[in-house]
Design brief:
Blueprint (H helix, E strand, L loop, with lengths): L5 E6 L5 E5 L2 H8 L5 H14 L9 E8 L2 E4 L2
Antiparallel strand pairs: 1-2, 1-3, 3-4
Helix pairs in contact: 1-2
Protein backbone atom coordinates (compact mmCIF):
# COMPACT_ATOMS: atom_id res chain seq x y z
CA UNK A 1 0.00 0.00 0.00
CA UNK A 2 1.42 3.39 -1.00
CA UNK A 3 0.82 6.03 1.63
CA UNK A 4 1.45 9.76 1.74
CA UNK A 5 1.54 10.08 5.54
CA UNK A 6 1.80 7.28 8.09
CA UNK A 7 4.09 4.50 9.25
CA UNK A 8 5.67 1.57 7.50
CA UNK A 9 7.12 -1.55 9.10
CA UNK A 10 6.58 -5.24 9.71
CA UNK A 11 4.29 -7.23 11.97
CA UNK A 12 5.95 -8.59 15.09
CA UNK A 13 3.95 -11.82 14.78
CA UNK A 14 5.18 -12.96 11.37
CA UNK A 15 7.35 -10.25 9.80
CA UNK A 16 4.93 -9.42 7.01
CA UNK A 17 5.08 -5.81 5.78
CA UNK A 18 2.44 -3.33 6.90
CA UNK A 19 1.67 0.32 6.25
CA UNK A 20 -0.80 2.41 8.23
CA UNK A 21 -1.93 5.75 6.82
CA UNK A 22 -2.21 8.67 9.24
CA UNK A 23 -4.71 11.50 9.10
CA UNK A 24 -3.66 15.11 9.65
CA UNK A 25 -4.26 14.97 13.43
CA UNK A 26 -2.08 11.86 13.76
CA UNK A 27 0.69 13.52 11.77
CA UNK A 28 0.47 16.63 13.93
CA UNK A 29 0.81 14.52 17.07
CA UNK A 30 3.56 12.29 15.65
CA UNK A 31 5.74 15.19 14.52
CA UNK A 32 5.24 17.65 17.38
CA UNK A 33 8.29 17.71 19.66
CA UNK A 34 6.80 20.27 22.08
CA UNK A 35 4.32 17.92 23.78
CA UNK A 36 4.60 14.78 25.90
CA UNK A 37 5.67 12.25 23.28
CA UNK A 38 4.28 9.23 25.17
CA UNK A 39 0.86 10.86 25.40
CA UNK A 40 1.03 11.90 21.74
CA UNK A 41 2.00 8.38 20.61
CA UNK A 42 -0.84 6.86 22.64
CA UNK A 43 -3.25 9.24 20.91
CA UNK A 44 -1.84 8.33 17.47
CA UNK A 45 -2.23 4.60 18.21
CA UNK A 46 -5.74 5.03 19.62
CA UNK A 47 -6.75 6.80 16.40
CA UNK A 48 -5.25 3.90 14.37
CA UNK A 49 -7.53 1.48 16.22
CA UNK A 50 -10.53 3.81 15.88
CA UNK A 51 -9.88 3.91 12.12
CA UNK A 52 -9.89 0.10 11.90
CA UNK A 53 -6.14 -0.54 11.83
CA UNK A 54 -4.01 -2.67 14.14
CA UNK A 55 -2.64 -1.03 17.28
CA UNK A 56 1.04 -0.37 16.47
CA UNK A 57 2.06 -0.60 20.16
CA UNK A 58 3.77 -3.96 20.56
CA UNK A 59 2.46 -5.26 17.23
CA UNK A 60 4.61 -3.51 14.61
CA UNK A 61 8.35 -3.09 14.19
CA UNK A 62 8.27 0.41 12.72
CA UNK A 63 10.88 1.04 10.02
CA UNK A 64 9.96 4.62 9.16
CA UNK A 65 7.41 7.38 9.32
CA UNK A 66 6.21 8.60 5.92
CA UNK A 67 5.83 12.37 5.61
CA UNK A 68 4.45 13.76 2.35
CA UNK A 69 5.41 10.55 0.58
CA UNK A 70 9.01 10.48 1.85
CA UNK A 71 10.38 7.97 4.35
CA UNK A 72 11.96 9.47 7.46
CA UNK A 73 13.72 7.90 10.42
CA UNK A 74 11.07 7.14 13.02
CA UNK A 75 13.07 7.94 16.15
Amino acid sequence: MRIVNGIRGSLVSDGSPISIPFNSKQMQLALNKDIDMNWAWDCVCDICVSNGFIDPRGNINIDCIVVNGKDRVFH
